Amino acid sequence: MDQRADHDILDLFVIGGGINGCGIARDAVGRGFTVELAEMNDLASATSSASTKLFHGGLRYLEYWEVRLVREALVERETLLKAMPHISWPMRFVLPFHPDMRFEGDTPTSKLLNVVMPWMKGRRPAWLIRLGLFMYDNLGGRQILKGTTSISLRGTPEGNPLQDRFEKAYEYSDCWIEDSRLVVLNARDAQARGARINVRTKVIAAEQVNGVWQVTLEDRDNGQTRQVRAKMLVNAGGPWVENVIRNTVRINSSEGVRLVRGSHIVTRKLYDHDKCYFFQGEDGRIIFTIPYENDFTLIGTTDAEHTDVSEKPVCTPEERDYLLNFASNYFKNPVTVDDVVWTYSGVRPLYDDGASSATAATRDYVLKVDQSAGAPILNVFGGKITTYRKLAESALEKIVPFFEEARDPWTAGVALPGGDFAVDGVDALREKLCAQYSFLSERWAARLIKAYGTESFDVLGEAKTAEDLGQNFGADLTAREANWLVEREFARKADDIVWRRSKLGLRMSDEEIASLEQWLADRAAEQEQHNAV
């Protein structure tokens, strides 16, 4: 599907295989540009697989008066939901109310209310929360998702897990998203439309030669290098965007990022219903608790400064305990360290706007074109997963003027691979899959549909029995599915499969994951031997 010969000059070379890089590559190639992308690790191996897994407008951003950002995100929720109903679905969020709820002290709304209502002493009044939710319901032209309602927490499923002091709550809508699968599906669609996608390929240098970028790539598996040429670079390096500017393309720029670490914990299942909680702390922070992978609960997130991009982000004991204590202030039964089954952490590369705290730093994206080296480079700062498609469209608005012609924007509502079915069609699709493959359990079929959608039938192929799918590595991950992930979804290592293409690592033992790793190594060796012949 590669559009070009190796000696041709590309239109765009994209650095970074997170959601912004893959989203831009997909949009650009669909408009007729020749595109190549390089990711130094696995797709979505950093920030884009470490989110809170939500398409949401960002209710708390209204306190910072980021109305444009919230509105754009609210509109996008439903646009994206229609394009990927297999990996995204609506969820209801329960926001318990109590008079102790307080603002973060440095929000514009808090400062204003402290002046006009000093007797509130930083507390969030109920009317203000309801006003925010009214705006949340109406800013984005909501059509699919349900609006806000008030609910009782007395003797209800939503109230049963909570402490008795919580008597009422507001319930509103947002959407779940399988974040790392979103990245992979954008990369797959970009490839299908003609882009070249390289994983485990590092850009070790890029220099402008006669008005064209000459990019040197290193294959991190075998150390081989090669060069490509491109008319324009897109620096979507995420946490490394500033490093790319300073050390890879070596240009002077006053733009920079503020690295903010967001940590999450996954616990045993804390309650039986399928709704999420939006908890507000007396320190002004908020956290979510979300039903996760059927048997678990996801709790996050923190906001902490992260000073060194080369340091792998981890959930520190202090962040873990903060989340545990925060949740325990709401639940009847305290959440303890013994309940935690997994933690993860990601670094948000926020645009450095000089905000006083990590929490106050803008979540909006900033796109800057730099021509100081001669050939143009677009540097991408910040962004949030909900607005990745709009960010890509905005990026193309910056890119198009450097080229003679380009097609119009096209991605709104266009299904990602496997997403070509109705928003409310998941149950029917699962039933169809079970009817065709009678050996599937309901749980197995549900997992496949929520990962692959209509492509689940292609993953299973002509199989008549479970044995036809080859080795079962554990948690119903078979050799057939693993082959699909290697051949179609750029997976190379066991971690790619069990922590990014899926979350089967929560269910598989270390021995099972090691067995998968060995199988992948043997498969790669056989392929290399075959290619040599």
Automatic annotation (TrEMBL):
GO terms for molecular function: glycerol-3-phosphate dehydrogenase (quinone) activity. InterPro entries: DAO_C, DAO_C_sf, FAD-dep_OxRdtase, FAD/NAD-bd_sf, G3P_DH_FAD-dep. It comes from the Bacteria. Its EC number is 1.1.5.3. It catalyses: a quinone + sn-glycerol 3-phosphate = dihydroxyacetone phosphate + a quinol. Residues 11-360 form the FAD dependent oxidoreductase domain. SUPFAM superfamilies: FAD-linked reductases, C-terminal domain, FAD/NAD(P)-binding domain. Its cofactor is FAD. This is Glycerol-3-phosphate dehydrogenase. It comes from Sulfitobacter noctilucicola. The lineage of its organism: Bacteria, Pseudomonadati, Pseudomonadota, Alphaproteobacteria, Rhodobacterales.
